[in-house]
Amino acid sequence: MVGNATSDLAAPLHAFRHVQTDDLSKLEQAVRRYYAEAKFEIHSARKLNAVANRCQLRDIGLAYSRLGTRVRIEIPNFNAYAMLFAHRGNAAARVGRNEIEIVANGGLIASVSEPVRLDYGDEFEHLLLSIAPKALEEKLEALIGMAASDRIRFEPHADFRRRETEKLRQLFRLLVEHLESSSADPGPIALAELEQAVVVSFLFANTSNYSLRLHRYPQLAASWQVRRAEAYIEANWDQPLTVEALALVAGVSARTLFHSFRKSRGYSPMEFVKRIRLNHARRMLQKADFSTSVTTVAFACGFGNLGHFSGYYRRAFGEMPSATLRNGSKG
């Protein structure tokens, strides 16, 4: 990528300013809030011009930064699982004995407790997804149906030419768009489930010491276990639904449950969730009063994107939600 640096207002997550400084000690202090013992060395005559934006959700953090000069960053013990990739320019990283190029098609995957060294070019700007270790471990255990006997270790190179890895990067950008949107708050259901999708995607997109178990062909659940999961979804449709909860209710691994849904129902549990929520949305629109809007109904039913909601609704019921609302208001 060539051209001038991204302006502050055009930078991703610009509404979530974490630090803006030309003072190296202040930059180190700000970064150490998240990565203890991080050390910075400037390797250029160009002046430091650091801008960092960060949004911390329940289990994941999303960040953007540019430093405006060549910098080496050393983090002796990384305290999260993370994917770091280029927004602009190039950089290099070292994880153990592995040398990683951070370029358009390649990024860095960091694992907990690993030492990481980053060498940023003058024009480098990066995006960072970080995941709390406990959250990633709980998702892994729900997916494979057993306790993790060893800490998760990822291969440090992210290859965005792989479909699953690029999907993770796109999910990151989608979540950033949600957070930056000037429209109404999409609500906790959509945000929590989008966050969950990012965590699950991280496990499948990157090669780890658990990849064989994650990609192993799953067993089939009993029909009563699928029905139990359906009943749980129907009773909790207006709450964020997690793979951990579904696996616990059904008594099987999440992968087994998802595979069994597709075999016996022809769709996934999350597709079933969408159908249940659309039915509730239709009833709400049909019983509308003067304060009801398509937006409030969509967000109340767990749909964070109005365009997607309208498309799903039209395919399910043969009309746009606004048409149902108009007819419901007349009644």
Describe what this molecule looks like in 3D.
By secondary structure, the protein is of the alpha+beta class. Among the domains are: 17-134, Jelly Rolls (Sandwich), CATH 2.60.120; 273-330, Arc Repressor Mutant, subunit A. The chain contains 12 helices and 12 strands. It has helices at 24-31, 133-144, 163-180, 188-205, 211-215, 223-235, 243-250, 254-265, 269-286, 294-300, 306-317, 321-330; strands spanning 17-21, 39-42, 50-56, 60-66, 71-75, 81-88, 91-95, 98-102, 106-110, 116-120, 125-131, 157-159. The strands form 2 sheets. Strands 1-3-4-11-6-9-12 form a 7-stranded antiparallel beta sheet, with helices on both faces. A 5-stranded antiparallel beta sheet has the order 2-5-10-7-8, with no helix packed on it. α2 (133-144) runs parallel beside α7 (243-250) and α6 (223-235) packs across α8. The radius of gyration is 22 Å and the shape is globular. The chain starts with 16 loop residues before the first strand and ends with a helix. The model has no long low-confidence stretch (mean pLDDT 93).
